[in-house]
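Possible regression after last week's pipeline update?

I re-ran a chain I had predicted before the update to compare outputs. Posting the input and the new output here so someone can diff against the archived version. Not blocking, just want to make sure nothing changed silently.
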Amino acid sequence: MTTGAVYALKKNDSVIVISGRDRGKRGRVLRVLPEKRRVIVEGVNFIKRHTRPNPQKNVKGGIVEREAPLAASNVQLVCPECSNPTRVGRKLLETGRRVRYCVKCKGVVDK
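New output (post-update):
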């Protein structure tokens, strides 16, 4: 079973966090994990990981901060036309192309 929230988001979409400790932050989607219904957003939900040094992969040891996955339902797409957080609809254009659109301003989200 999948949810529409994950499929409404794609890599490189601009999103805003609508709940949680990072509420109000904006970022770009780095990865979408549809099987877990999660997304990784640039600059949001940082965690610290203790890593061991690995000279073969040229990795230094120490404490590394990186983005952790965030529930897809906790982020909302920011429309590129009206720059407001919005829900996403899907429609078929006359050309036969399927696109996502902003529910607020009816502008097309996909390029």
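Follow-up from reviewer: compared with the archived run. The first strand starts at residue 14 and ends at 17. Marking as no regression found.
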